[in-house]
Amino acid sequence: MAAIDNLSADRNYGSSDLGSRLNFQVSDQQIIEDYNKSKLSSLNSVIDRGNTQITGINEQLKTANSFLASLPSDSEQRASSEIFVNQLKNDLKSVTSAVVSAQDMQKNFTPITLDSPEGLKEVTSFRTYAQLPEERAAQQLFQIDPDSYRTAVGLGQQYRQMATEPLGATTTPQTEELRNTLEQEAMNQLRLGSTIGAEERRGYEQAIRGAQTARGNIFGLGPAVQEASQIGMAGEQRKLARYGAAQSFLGSGETTGAAAGRDLALRQGLEQNRLGAASNFVAGGPSIYNLANQRTGQQQSAMQQYIQANQALPGQFGQAQSTASPFYQAVDQQIPVALTNAFANLYGSQANYLGSTYGAQVGAISRQPSGAQQFAQIAGGVGSLLSPLKFG
């Protein structure tokens, strides 16, 4: 009956459809529904397989009883046959008890709910199982050196911020205002063309008239024509000067277009540098992913070395004790220690075990297989029968 308690043992999530998914792909309600469905399915499997074994044991028991009845009272085979009949009876009793217990559990089964302690425990167990090796390694890194872990997280945040935040202004408002003023003044001067200001024109007129008066040229159209000609030449010179100033401004590189081009090139260069630095950090820097992945690789390498160091050579029973460093891909850090001790005991006694089983095997060959052996040792408990019961 104690073996029936295995029906409530921890689940083997690897055999569940949900076991191959990541945490974010599975809801809490799906975990609860999967548990209830798998529980009932496992109980049905126990009952069906148990009834099949009961039928087989009854047939063997019937044959064994007939054979026992046909033996003379002084037959040497009678003692061994009686032992076999009693073993079948015990097997039948044990299997029947297991089936009845499974039927009672099926009849009294109460589905767990999300708000029940059992449901919360089941959700937590699945979430822990569904964690990737890198996630567990990251948790171990935090336990080993919290300060270094926080430093790596902080570096990752800074690189992310640097690669995603917009670049600030590369010029000052005063510079832009001055550039706009110069550009606007150059445009205004171009619009004036050959126009001369009133004060400047009056100066030209007075100078020209004074020169004409000094020469005695004050009558007729001559003075007026001379004045108009010289003022027109002054306007053309002013126009050419304005064009030259505008052209010089365009070539100075301080126009709005030139400044925008320089700013764009500068921003693109800075952005590329930032993205490159962030990419290098993600690829080979001390990010949490890289550190966790490195630790996972070390653990897997240590595990492979441990297994290879304890493999027997062809034709040999003995195995050398592993000298590889233990691996710690486990939530409970005491588990690897216990495994190491268990492996040492197992390998140290393997040669004796293999040698002693030869004699037992010879004796077993002459015996007819019992119902308990066919039923995965259900007589001693339904532990192995219930292994497929441990679902995902």
Provide a brief overview of the structure.
The protein is mostly helical and 392 residues long. 69% of the residues lie in helices and 0% in strands. It has helices spanning 28-70, 77-107, 117-129, 133-144, 146-164, 173-192, 198-215, 222-251, 256-284, 288-309, 334-348, 350-365, 371-374.
Describe this structure as you would to a colleague.
The protein is an all-alpha fold. The chain has 13 helices and no strands. Among the domains are: 1-130 and 370-392, no CATH class; 173-284, no CATH class. The longest helix is centred in the first third of the chain and has 43 residues, at 28-70.
Instruction: Please give the share of residues in helix.
Output: 55-70%
Return residue spans where pLDDT drops below 50 for at least 5 consecutive residues: 1-9, 326-331, 353-392
**Number of distinct beta strands:** 0
User: Strand-residue fraction?
Assistant: under 5%
Radius of gyration: 48 Å
Span between termini: 25 Å
Helix and strand run: HHHHHHHHHHHHH
Note the total helix count.
Answer: 13
Give the structural class. mainly alpha
How would you state the average pLDDT, rounded?
Answer: 76
Largest sheet: none
| Shape by Cα distribution | rod-shaped
